[in-house]
Each structure stands twice: as structure tokens, then as C-alpha cells.
UniProtKB/TrEMBL annotation:
<keyword id="KW-0378">Hydrolase</keyword>
<dbReference type="InterPro" id="IPR000073">
    <property type="entry name" value="AB_hydrolase_1"/>
</dbReference>
<dbReference type="InterPro" id="IPR050228">
    <property type="entry name" value="Carboxylesterase_BioH"/>
</dbReference>
<dbReference type="InterPro" id="IPR000639">
    <property type="entry name" value="Epox_hydrolase-like"/>
</dbReference>
<dbReference type="InterPro" id="IPR029058">
    <property type="entry name" value="AB_hydrolase_fold"/>
</dbReference>
<feature type="domain" description="AB hydrolase-1">
    <location>
        <begin position="31"/>
        <end position="286"/>
    </location>
</feature>
<dbReference type="Pfam" id="PF12697">
    <property type="entry name" value="Abhydrolase_6"/>
</dbReference>
<protein>
    <submittedName>
        <fullName>Alpha/beta hydrolase</fullName>
    </submittedName>
</protein>
<dbReference type="GO" id="GO:0016787">
    <property type="term" value="F:hydrolase activity"/>
</dbReference>
Length: 301
């Protein structure tokens, strides 16, 4: 089942959000899929067909990403993304239960939404799905390198992000995609790895303005939301992480699971950060498990 473009959402401060949907508008539950940093909603394409047979499925490109509008540097924060998610839910899914599924930055966005809109969260959210994400900023990110080397890389990365944040809506030429693929293959993927998945990821990264790549970095690195997670209402929740994830290693997922003791935690052997592409069946089955558990809860109650 293919995704269909929905009317764009114009946010209060100006940017527009590109929204797509699949499945029936009359479905008993809606699954909202949130993508990772400098990616876009296409990364979930392998999960959509199975989900749409049971639920309505919504994806959208976050501000400053994909086909959504560019942003002011001061709006490149996780807090703003949490507020944007609240706007998407009010506009596109005004009624009915929702399951929020977030990869990387998308998972952090869900946590920020829960922190900033706790009453709405408690009323609307029937299930959670965290994929290759963290509640502790860059605390555990060492890029698969020795700690002392990772510290130097982070210093360089932070300085580079400051420069990129000033470049606004500028994007590199598409020809840069070929040069980018080897580094993305190493950083984001485990084994085995389909070259088509690396290509899809590289195209998404190239589409992101450099201002977004650099602008979100301080907020992403600083976020701390374990206390927010521990205070959430209990809903069906699954947490997945790749064993070889260099950005959000298994310890990130384990700390989330400790804050949500009723959640199920799955560590996928040899996989990296892009689990929805690397292990599509595992991710789809886990998502469907959350959907069915959420639908079953009212009957059990």
C-alpha cells in the first residue's frame, strides 16, 4: 500500500510540514512514524504496507528535513519538534488513539512531546515504539571508537555543527551523494547491508539543509528525559536497538527500558542504526505487536 500526500501543515512560526498517509481513515488506531535526524519519512517505507492493513499510518518530514520547509536557526530545537508533533496530532489525527513510533531524533521528539504536553500524551497515546534512540543526549555516543578518540571527534563535530548552523537553507550538490555513501555506510549500518538502503539514506541526508544538520546538534546532545519516561502512563511499548549501533548504542536502549520496566527490549545482532531498513521484518513485527496490544487493551479492561 502506497503513501498518499496530505495537505501540508503550516506551523505557527512559518515552516510547512510535508505529510503523507496510508490506510483507512476509519481505522481503529493511527500509527505516527517519526524519522531520524537529517532523514525523512521514506525511511519507514518497508513498514507501511503491513501497518496500513490494520491501522491508519501517518509520516511527516520534520521541520528543516526532507520535503518540509526550511527553518530559522533558533527554531532548531527538540522542544520545537515536540510542539510540532502536538500540532500534527491536533491537525491530522484530532481524535482516536495513536501509537507514536520514533527512530533516533524521532524517538527524542516523542519524549519531548511527552515532557511538554503531558495531558495530551496521557489522553491520546495508546502505544510507544522507540527505535535506535536515546533519552540521554550524546552521553553514550562514542561512534564505535575508543573513548579518548571519541572525545576529540565530538569536539570537532560540535565546532563543525556551529559552522553548518550558519549556512541556513544551503544544500550540497547531489553529486556529493557518492562521496557521502562510504562514511554513512560505516556510521549508520551494521551487517549485512543492502547498498540500496545506503543510497536511500544518502539521498535523504543530501536533501537536508546544512542549517538543520548543524542547528539541531546542541539540543540533541543536551537532552535528558529519563525522568520524563519514568513518569509516563503505562502503555504497550517496544524498544529496539542494533548491537552495532555507533550513534545510539545498546546502553541507550537499556536505560530507556530501565525507565519503562513494562517495555520489551530487543537488541538486534550485528545491526546498526538504521534498523527499519536493515531488519525490516523484525521492526515491522515489533510494531504490529504494539498495535495489537494497544487494540486489545480496551477489550481486556
Amino acid at each position: 500500500m502506497t503513501m498518499v500526500d496530505q495537505p501540508e501543515i503550516r506551523l505557527a512560526d512559518g515552516p510547512r510540514l510535508h505529510v503523507r498517509s496510508a490506510g483507512s481513515d476509519d481505522a481503529p488506531i493511527t500509527v505516527v512514524l517519526l524519522h531520524g535526524w537529517v532523514l525523512d519519512g521514506r525511511t519507514w517505507h518497508r513498514q507501511v504496507p503491513a501497518l496500513a492493513r490494520t491501522a491508519r499510518v501517518i509520516t511527516y518530514d520534520a521541520r528543516g528535513h526532507g520535503r518540509s520547509g526550511a527553518i530559522d536557526r533558533n527554531a532548531a530545537t527538540l522542544a520545537q519538534l515536540g510542539d510540532d508533533l502536538a500540532t500534527v496530532l491536533r491537525t491530522v489525527v484530532p481524535t482516536g488513539p495513536v501509537i507514536l513510533a520514533g527512530h533516533s531524533l524521532g524517538g527524542m521528539t516523542i519524549m519531548e512531546y511527552a515532557h511538554r504536553h503531558p495531558a495530551d500524551f496521557a489522553e491520546r497515546v495508546a502505544g510507544l515504539f522507540f527505535l535506535g534512540t536515546t533519552a540521554e543526549g550524546h552521553t553514550h555516543t562514542v561512534y564505535g571508537l575508543p573513548t579518548h578518540v571519541a572525545r576529540l571527534v565530538r569536539i570537532a563535530e560540535t565546532a563543525s555543527a556551529e559552522v553548518l548552523a550558519r549556512l541556513g537553507d544551503w544544500r550540497p550538490h547531489r553529486a556529493f551523494t557518492l562521496a557521502l555513501r562510504p562514511s554513512l555506510r560505516w556510521l549508520l549500518f551494521g551487517y549485512p547491508c543492502d547498498p540500496a538502503d545506503v543510497q536511500l539514506t544518502a539521498k535523504a541526508v543530501i536533501r537536508a539543509p546544512l542549517g538543520s544538520i548543524g542547528g539541531f546538534r546542541p539540543s540533541v546532545g543536551a537532552q535528558q528525559r529519563l525522568e520524563t519516561l519514568a513518569a509516563l502512563p503505562t502503555v504497550p511499548t517496544a524498544i529496539l536497538v542494533g548491537e552495532k549501533d555507533r550513534l545510539t548504542p545498546p546502553v541507550c536502549a537499556q536505560s530507556i527500558a530501565a525507565a519503562l520496566p513494562d517495555a520489551t527490549l530487543t537488541i538486534c545482532p550485528d545491526a546498526g542504526h538504521m534498523l527499519m531498513l536493515e531488519r525490516p521484518e523484525v521492526v515491522t513485527d515489533a510494531l504490529l505487536g504494539v498495535v495489537h496490544a494497544a487494540l486489545d487493551r480496551p477489550r481486556r479492561a
